[in-house]
Amino acid sequence: xxxxxxxxxxxxxxxxxxxxxxxxxxxxxxxxxxxxxxxxxxxxxxxxxxxxxxxxxxxxxxxxxxxxxxxxxxxxxxxxxxxxxxxxxxxxxxxxxxxxxxxxxxxxxxxxxxxxxxxxxxxxxxxxxxxxxxxxxxxxxxxxxxxxxxxxxxxxxxxxxxxxxxxxxxxxxxxxxxxxxxxxxxxxxxxxxxxxxxxxxxxxxxxxxxxxxxxxxxxxxxxxxxxxx
Length: 229
Description:
Blueprint: H1 16-30, E1 38-39, H2 41-48, H3 52-65, E2 69-71, E3 75-77, H4 83-104, H5 110-127, H6 136-148, H7 154-178, H8 181-196, H9 200-228
Helix pairs in contact: 1-3, 2-3, 4-7, 4-9, 5-6, 5-8, 6-7, 7-9, 8-9
């Protein structure tokens, strides 16, 4: 990680915490900041020409997202991605999300389908911009959550949301490392169309396969990345 201060790396004085978090998030997802790296507040503040306060808040935000771990006496660390963690999170998603979709589809209305379509168009646009990868996981969740929203299963939804929060780093990384954008887009459109047709078994089957493939491809991509490094 190059922490030398340069004019080009200075962050405009807008929402400094969000800006620092966005920069660090992008570098972690891309691998510019490698696994195991220690993030020092003073070095980051110097690089981005900000005080340590927004840096500290940004690190707390990234810790809450699961992108980093704040360790006592060591500070912020970029944890290694565990294949076991990936497999567990995507297995949980593949079990729970088709179940909640099954209950939601009969109650979805035209407004829900239109809203999902709008999010999907924006998601597709963002996927073409690698420097916008911090938004990929958020838009992916928005699309899926609209389709789950009519299930009237608040506890189920809370669990799924927590799992997605834990796995958002992996969702973005899977798309980035595997270049899986085209397949993800096709599957999202297929799921949405099956929901419109009220094809509950079909939509749930494609959703399950969509999640399972994402987990498997990410696990393989990480293993290949480490083998070549």
